[in-house]
Write a structure and sequence with these properties.
CATH architecture: 3-Layer(aba) Sandwich
CATH superfamily: Gcn5-related N-acetyltransferase (GNAT)
Number of helices: 3
Structural class: alpha+beta
Order of helices and strands: EHEEEHEHEE
Radius of gyration: 14 Å
Number of strands: 7
CATH topology: Aminopeptidase
Number of domains: 1
CATH class: Alpha Beta
Largest sheet: 7 strands, mixed
Distance between the termini: 30 Å
Length: 145
């Protein structure tokens, strides 16, 4: 199994690779966005990356941003196809650790239908809300610390 360094993206190069992974997955692979998946939350988000140790390449990403009452939202979890298998769980756990360290009490996410069971295995629960975004069913989920 490959080894990864999970960390907050800080350098210009890390941010560039973080954005490239998101574009590769959400624009090119899944077609959820037309050209770019960035939004206003990116200005306040904490970008987390998984860097593959051997190549130094960013293999997966996730972002977290604060909302009211000290709660946080996670999103844009993306792993390049050649790195899939366990890396998503590492990224979610790192995001949970990061926001908990910043005082988060409840961590929310808008999860694609095929990933609900994955998040449940990591301790998340459904909030009861669902929606369709770009023809993909999403469910609101949360984990309470």
């Amino acid at each position: 199994m490959a080894k990864y360094e999970l960390k907050v993206a800080e350098s210009r190069e890390e941010i560039k690779q973080y954005e490239e992974v998101r574009r590769a997955v959400f624009v090119n692979e899944q077609g959820i966005f037309n050209e770019d998946d960035s939004d206003d939350y990116d200005t306040i988000a904490v970008p987390i990356i998984a860097v593959e140790a051997e190549s130094g390449r960013v293999a997966g990403v996730v972002r977290c941003y604060p909302i009211e009452n000290g709660d946080w939202v996670g999103g844009r979890l993306a792993v390049l196809p050649e790195f899939r298998g366990r890396l998503g769980a590492l990224l979610v756990r790192k995001a949970m650790e990061e926001v908990q360290g910043r005082g988060c009490r409840i961590f929310y996410a808008h999860i694609q239908e095929q990933n609900v069971k994955f998040f449940e295995r990591l301790g998340w629960s459904l909030t009861g809300k669902s929606s369709v975004f770009s023809n993909v069913v999403h469910y609101d989920m949360k984990v309470v610390f």
